[in-house]
Amino acid sequence: MSQVRLDMLISKALNVSRKDAKGLIAKGRIAIDKEIIKRPDAKVDDGCEISFDSKSFFYQKFLYILQNKPLGIISSTDGYDGKTVLDILPEQLKRNGLFPAGRLDKYSCGMMIITDDGKFAHSMLSPSCHVEKEYYVKTAEDVISEKMAEEFSKGVYLGEGQYSSPAQMRIIDSRCAYITIHEGIYHQVRRMIKAMGGTVIALKRVRIGDLALDENLKEGESRLLTENEKEALLKRKI
Ligand code: URA
């Protein structure tokens, strides 16, 4: 069972210093499972309800968040170039230490995973884990064809000495398709299409591993993943 000290938890959850967290605890403003606790070193178990004045939340060691990223938002922790995927999280999911597990470029939308569990993110992102990513893509020209699908299935030269590994394409029509890739090379899908003479005008990530983007999650919305969804993300495809 994972446990954490109350003052550390309060400092992280409320984004205050450890000293201020101790102050709030000493003043009797914090309760664990509805009982006011004044000891900063009290241990909190995973799943305990923490109350702060009239607000409450359930302690979880790590958060695993699914977000439907809108266009124009950057998938980084650093917002020098605009709003980030962390900025648009609802207040109850915001806390220190969260980061996006993987990138999705500013002009792409769709499925993002945000967590504070470094090991989990590593298993999702590590090339040796082969976690698939599927994208819906739309091009400006009528370039999507069986020929392109065949080229993608062999791997594509992306320029600058880089090749993609084989990718799968499900054709919708001559401008739209679903493309599944197995690694996360910078701007990979855009570069694969460009290598075939096309221009991507819309790109949306619709699946990671065995987990599809929840269609009920509107653009800009985020929610916690269920246990089953976490497992689906980590299923290996060799
Ligand atoms: N491919 C791209 O071109 N951009 C992304 O964000 C992800 C894959």
Q: Can you offer a commentary on this structure?
A:
- By secondary structure, the chain is an alpha+beta fold.
- It has six helices and 17 strands.
- Strands 7, 8, 9, 10, 13, 14, 15, 16 and 17 form a nine-stranded mixed sheet that branches.
- A hairpin with a 4-residue loop joins strand 13 and strand 14.
- Helix 1 (6-14) crosses helix 2.
- The chain is elongated.
- The two termini are 33 Å apart.
- The relative contact order is 0.15.
- Uracil (URA) binds next to helix 5.
Indicate the radius of gyration in whole angstroms.
Answer: 21 Å
Runs with pLDDT <50, length 5+?
none
Number of alpha- plus pi-helical segments: 6
Task: Name the structural class.
Answer: alpha+beta
Task: Report the average pLDDT across residues.
Answer: 92
* Shape annotation: elongated
